[in-house]
């Protein structure tokens, strides 16, 4: 996975934060451990960050740090979703997922009123995929089932959702951590989603109300 | 459920479990996890599992194979912890060797602290010898160097003060016998306010940096101010 990196020094210059702040936010788990990428350079070891992600994250922290405590922020950014339970009504009201996907959930839930974070997350991710036009509704259903079934084992960990397709047959799976993928020729990598990113987005939707 | 106490006087084995008080006087081997309110060891304890307690006080020797979780942990003898330690207050009066990572609110005291992984805390105030394999990340770092060379791969935080010890008066009669030779070796030190003495480091980066006597620094990058002692060596300085 190629991503543009930014050195710690450049990051501090660009954002105007201090070393003390950066280390504090890391300690408070506002910045995930795996974004600190250590590389040897001619001046010794240097720390780099995935540029896009860290800049977005620091902007977000700077926006919010006056209104909310660092612990509240940490809860928001943590890859381990808090025990969020929404009612059906709230999910509809906040337009978290599109109507098609909402129907699936409604059928699954039956009379139950509460929607757990995991349920919501799996639908949210499938919804995003559907909206991107990369997958069909039928495939979406498969991904949804797979995600709901396997995600609890990975909860709180960093993972990616991978969707591959060969001659019209789609295969999806969850990958713990981040690793390089090498697939045979003729296989199309339909989607590769970094799950924590979506968790954050979803939390954001929920907390905004 | 009213929890039982576990008391071992002499020498015994235990399977572990949930207790109110655990006190070990003598020698004990515990084959499982312990969960308790207070745990005291006078003598020697070998715990094969994890220890979760409100307070842990070790006056002798303790080997713990698993995780340690506690609100306060006092090490007045020697502790050898294989797993990670999540302790709010770690009080050191002896020697603690941690093979995993340490997360704490405050780490204070004197003696020898070795952490193979990273060590994170709000306050770290130690006198003696400190070895940290990865990063020491704390809001405030106060180290008084005594006895021998300390090594820390990376220090990061808001305020970082490294001094050759003279802070703890109780140490003076001890240090009379050996000349003061304690130093700190680090690869990177990064903070907002940095004061260093007798420190060897490849790179020091900060807002306000003071390089005191006995330092050998490869590169100093500072933003607002740099003060350098005449007995310090700095190969290269850059203002950002």
From TrEMBL, chain B:
Domain of life: Bacteria
Cross-referenced Pfam families: Bactofilin (PF04519)
InterPro entries linked to this entry: BacA/B
Family named by the database record: Belongs to the bactofilin family.
Name of the featured protein: Polymer-forming cytoskeletal protein
